[in-house]
Automatic annotation (TrEMBL):
Family matches, as PANTHER family: 2-HYDROXYACID DEHYDROGENASE-RELATED, GLYOXYLATE_HYDROXYPYRUVATE REDUCTASE B
SUPFAM superfamilies: Formate/glycerate dehydrogenase catalytic domain-like (SSF52283), NAD(P)-binding Rossmann-fold domains (SSF51735)
Membership in a protein family: Belongs to the D-isomer specific 2-hydroxyacid dehydrogenase family.
PROSITE patterns per the UniProt record, alphabetical: D_2_HYDROXYACID_DH_1
Protein name: D-glycerate dehydrogenase
Domain (D-isomer specific 2-hydroxyacid dehydrogenase catalytic): residue spans on this chain: 5-318
Highest classification ranks of the organism: Bacteria, Pseudomonadati, Pseudomonadota, Betaproteobacteria, Burkholderiales
């Protein structure tokens, strides 16, 4: 008999078809977001699950299910999964790194450039019929070329963002738990390691690409925003909770920084309603990895991991406790 798995959210039909070659698949193509209780119920008798950030895999859940062997998360981030609890319950977990690096880096640039050059704000103004004349000082913003880019979180996505800055002749500062090798720094447009405060004080554009964990909670709050230049932009494509959204709103209101680009929010898909009252923030619904090719690659990668893990092989992206 094929092992049973749960695909917890809607996914590409061809990926479901592939999973059906190996497993008895319970799918959720109408994409109902499962409550923790529903998830526990649906996982009864399942050996595997393909999940996204909306599924919390924690001690509470794992105590209620038995026989679960593997959770394959379709995301590079895995802050929704308690690895220690998985370890204690003998459950393997995997993520989908690498396949989304370049697509996510592209989007980081799009968001940062939109925030700096006020693209969505100008478009709203145009759509509202306000464009009756050109003026020398309409929608002025900071330049990107020649400016200093500050990258907090210099993993594979951060390095891909840095490489793109070569064409903009930017100086790159980065802050990370560990320093890159000299070769990696060179490849990342000669990125220079800096303390967080030094980076925030010097950067013209700050971009956040670090994983969420209790240690990175509110990496950017009121104090950090106060260190930034009044002409600076802040872009978050990592996770909600890395920025203190209320503090950011307060800073944007008084133009303590010029603008922000946000793809992730605290408590998303809910978010602080005051963001909607601000002109100087570009808001997108957690779509940094959303190219057709990359989302399919992420789903296939999650499926590869699940197939490996439940057929006795080592999942290529097995997460282990650090
Ligand atoms: C995806 O990121 C989700 O919220 O499930
Ligand atoms: C998306 O946010 C991911 O972690 O892949």
């Amino acid at each position: 008999m094929k092992p049973a798995i749960l695909v917890a959210r809607a996914v590409f039909p061809q990926v479901l078809e592939r999973l059906r070659q190996y497993f008895e698949v319970e799918s959720n193509q109408d994409d109902h977001i499962l409550t923790p209780a529903e998830l526990a119920t649906r996982l009864q008798g399942k050996q595997g699950a393909l999940t996204t950030a909306s599924a919390r895999i924690n001690e509470d859940l794992l105590q209620q299910v038995s026989g679960l062997k593997m959770v394959a998360n379709m995301a590079v981030g895995y802050d929704n999964i308690d690895l220690a609890a998985c370890h204690a319950h003998g459950v393997m977990a995997s993520n989908t790194p690498d396949v989304l690096n370049e697509t996510t880096a592209d989007f980081g640039w799009a968001l940062m450039m939109a925030a700096a050059r006020r693209i969505t704000e100008a478009e709203h103004w145009l759509r509202e019929g306000k464009w009756t004349k050109w003026r020398y000082d309409y929608f002025l913003g900071p330049d990107l070329h020649g400016a200093t880019l500050g990258i907090i979180g210099m993993g594979r996505i951060g390095q891909a963002i840095a490489r793109r800055s070569m064409g903009f002749n930017m100086k790159v500062l980065y802050h990370n738990r560990s320093r890159l090798s000299p070769e990696q720094e060179l490849a990342a447009n000669h990125a220079v390691y800096a303390g967080k405060e030094e980076l925030l004080r010097q950067a013209d554009h700050v971009i956040l690409v670090l994983p969420y964990s209790p240690a990175s909670h509110h990496t950017i709050g009121a104090a950090e925003l106060g260190m930034m230049k009044p002409t600076a932009t802040l872009t978050n494509l990592a996770r909600g909770g890395i920025v203190d959204d209320a503090a950011l709103i307060a800073a944007l209101k008084v133009k303590q920084i010029a603008s922000a680009g946000l793809d992730v929010f605290e408590n998303e898909p809910k978010f602080h309603p005051d963001f909607l009252t601000l002109d100087n923030v570009v808001l997108t619904p957690h779509i940094a990895s959303a190219s057709e090719k990359t989302r399919l690659a992420m789903a296939q990668c999650a499926a590869d991991n699940l197939i490996a893990g439940l057929t006795g092989a080592t999942p290529p992206n097995l997460l282990t406790l650090k």
